[in-house]
């Protein structure tokens, strides 16, 4: 908030904000005749849509007082927007050599309320310079002979020109000058102490009132203190130190891209050495660490001398190999990155800031608890072709166990022998008024340590990301790390902004690009596209290719390859792209498809500028990038490789689709471009407006327990917040992230999950929660690993349990009337071993295993010519999932006569028995129920109503026991013995016993279910919960309401 004065004296309190399209009518009311004379007649909505930055000033009543629109190029009538620097040089403007696309913007429109034009113009210019730290010049192009209005005339000054247009410039130093940075002296103490006390008084309480003076006095060759001075007063302070525990940082963070924060040394071990092996045992390239780039002799040889500075390290470990690749998993290297959890996603994943492209490391779900359930689709295919690991006992379900820890492989860790190449920022503080100029400290601090190239700073997870560290690269923690801080890194050569430029690729760049991407997985596809661009500028089918490189002092540090988006109608019809753009204001040829994007980690803070330049020079306004799920054909997947940059784009929600009856609609059917079937993918997008709109970074560690409908919905809601960037999202689930949810609610189908690509944004820990350490804010896993959290979300829901036989005396004709509700719904004690052919069906993993077993048993039955037809598969339950399971068995080839559906009762003479919440009929519609019953009868499936499991007979096997027969009680006489091949349990449904123990031992209020308030909070404010595992606390008197009345998909939105 600030004030502007009118020419007649009254002042207005104003707020500067980004312009929205709804402001257009109010802006039109401000247009005067002088506006048309200067800028012509402009479509305001179109200008807002196409501008890189547009600013609106409004007063306390939200009345629009002023507006300005800025683009990264002059008006089209003046010159080609893609080549305006050449136009300025040809016209011999004074600042032609100093102005670059990185430090320049053009004012395309300005309008303000009469009497406030001078104040509004000054405030808008100040706001723009503060919002874009790299900006040095704002240009105004007017037709020759046209003078700017008085308000602009006071700000913009003319430059000499030899052309037919006049160019005016507004320079930063006249409005938001660079801060004067100098070494601190003791006299600065009085200026700085109020600043520290206002922001944080902890230092004074800990170290005394004069800690700052003591720190300034203690400066030596290893410790320095700097201040930012404005008007003779210190407004900012920074303390730097050359003593850094490099070994500790190497152990806790993935620092390979920065050469471990050390100088290169001949004794460095950067690559894993393999023993000699036979031809059939040669290690794959994905198992080796990246080879360092050979130092170059270019004009930036000093950059090349730091291997981590120029070498883009391999991501082959996370970007799966051709033929087995999961493009969705490859997207995860770009995702909001791992936090400092006790167990975090593979540090080889790049950080959300696009900071690191690291060497070979497995994904967390693979490194911690084995492969995810997504791999079972491929596993099922292999096992159906004879590669089953359970061929020896086909009549026993595959064990429902997590992979053994003995299969884990520890990734190779480089060894660095060189001396430290880093110094740290120990203390930093600056007045809020000048915080946008925090980056002015960076050039100065490197002068104090000329022999060190890297500056690091650590910040607590809950500290909001401030402007200084927006210039830094966030480093991914290692899985074993458990530090309470985030690490940010900045390299000396990141200051070379005046020589960073983006241009079209040319043939001579190929060799440097090849070195740049040498250690990136699937780089052959990027290089193939570059060769095709160099030879023909288009594909064989005529699709135009555009390739751009980022050049710094003659060295290629980045590459981007795009094509025209040919399927824009499909995107518009299948995704909510109009949440971000007004589609009608973008020509068809302005939509581009991003195929490849790589940028050196040193220059990651220029990623948005790189994309902005690609849009400008390519005459595009939008770029789209797809993330495919793991089952997509490789022809689609191989065309894309985004090593960095995804974090600067926004994910786009998919639209719900109409299933058109095309034959009935005939000529009235939608276009084939809309109805055509395409591989499913998650869409990411960036446009001109987003290139100068920063995201709010949130480093808080958010841990979600359970891949239920509620858990997935919660993750979707925060991952799809376009202006928020969550760096530390973690999902803990027994089977990892599923391809589809086994849920009767059908909230998320496999298609829905493909559209989300949560693996790109969420770290997945495959395991089981066994305890919650509230004092340390850690979740304890079944293998002893710990995952730290700042916010814990419990969404485990309820799971089907293996039933405990009631033990009723069926020999003496016991009936259901003799049973209590607790006996009917009691699960098997988890401390007791379950028979091998008993399975509780809860997730995709179980479902795939059941289908595999059903297929094998079907083949076995055919070979035995239907002998022993009395033995059957028993499906125990009366929920909707029980009917789905019967259908799965029939689809797997199991004969209907070998399937028995045993449905437990809902009531007996003593009251309610079954608590599965289906009221006896999961369909709640007699017509449907009758049709299903008729279908089961036609298939030969036996349905046993009101049967309760009383006993099972077991026999020993090589690895345990298996059921041979089961007995049930009924309302009348018991069923003494039913030969049983296997028991599939879908009753009872309970909160998992280990989850209950974890909550109960953590002293969370558990009243049958976990008690929450109206904001989903438990009695611990850091722990929230939702879904079927919860109930409202008794103070709400809402026992009849809760999860069973809620749509899980939207409960946490």
Automatic annotation (TrEMBL):
Bias (Polar residues) occurs at 287-314
Q: Which domain of life is it from?
A: Eukaryota
Gene3D superfamilies reported for this sequence: FAD/NAD(P)-binding domain
- Composition bias of kind Acidic residues appears in 275-284
Residue ranges annotated for the Cilia- and flagella-associated protein 61 N-terminal domain, each copy included: 16-264
Region annotation (Disordered) maps to: 274-350
According to UniProt, the name of this protein is Cilia- and flagella-associated protein 61 N-terminal domain-containing protein
Q: Which organism is it from?
A: Clavelina lepadiformis (Light-bulb sea squirt)
